[in-house]
Amino acid sequence: MDMTPDPAPPAQPLPEPRRLGPLARLAPEPMKVVLNWGRRYSLWVFNFGLACCAIEFIAASMSRHDFIRLGVIPFAPGPRQADLMIVSGTVTDKMAPAVKRLYEQMPEPKYVISFGACSNCGGPYWDSYSVTKGVDQIIPVDVYVPGCPPRPEALLQGILKLQEKIARESTGERYAPAKPSVQALTSGLVTPPAPAPGSGSGSGDTK
């Protein structure tokens, strides 16, 4: 009988857990409703304006449309004070590392709105050698606003969609670290030696 142990499964990288405070993760359901309510109506915006869509963002923040009435505060001092990044305009391959670096500096929980065709998929320049085919190639996007350029009313609708998403989200499920599988926990470990053929069970029987 072949007693050769089965080969160990290939190692799988463990997922990197996201960090969130214990109050948001372990709070009871009524408290989570209050946290989501406060989060959705106090979104500090980090505007990453790259092209003509940024002009429409500025129009949406002015007195005619006034998205501050929706609980969105424009022009955060920097990424570390921002909850929402709005990428408006053409993302080039040269600018993509800066977009990703500033997104990583934002504290959790953070959200992204892709504003305009260029930010969504490259727009009229999708086949250019120097244009990133959508900002979602480098950072996760929560809401897409189509148009070239979109009207300010489209951005207001995108903000409302994001607020609806925040209102029904569970921060515990979103930021809880994923449980690794048994294969991931046992992969790469030393395999115990197989018992020698004919060895006793160790019950203490003597003849």
Can you characterise this structure?
- The structure is a single chain.
- The chain is α/β, with parallel strands linked by helices and 207 residues long.
- Helices cover 32% and strands 11% of the residues.
- It has eight helices and five strands, in the order ααβαββαβαβααα.
- The chain has a five-stranded parallel beta sheet with strand order 2-1-3-4-5.
- Helix 4 (96-105) links the parallel strand 3 (84-88) and strand 4 (111-115).
- The mean pLDDT is 77.
- It catalyses: a quinone + NADH + 5 H(+)(in) = a quinol + NAD(+) + 4 H(+)(out).
- GO terms for molecular function: 4 iron, 4 sulfur cluster binding; iron ion binding; NADH dehydrogenase (quinone) (non-electrogenic) activity; NADH dehydrogenase (ubiquinone) activity; quinone binding.
- Its cofactor is [4Fe-4S] cluster.
- It is an enzyme of class 7 (translocase).
Q: What separation lies between the terminal Cα atoms?
A: 26 Å
What is the oligomeric state here? single chain
Strand content: 5-15%
Tell me the strand order in the biggest sheet: 2-1-3-4-5
Q: Strand-and-helix sequence, N→C?
A: HHEHEEHEHEHHH
Mean pLDDT: 77
Largest sheet: 5 strands, parallel
Give start-end ranges of low-pLDDT stretches. Answer: none
Query: Counting H and I runs of at least 4 residues, what is the number of helices?
Result: 8
Structural class: alpha/beta
The value of Rg in angstroms is 26 Å
Determine the fraction of residues in helical runs and give it as a percent range.
25-40%
Shape: extended
User: How many strands?
Assistant: 5
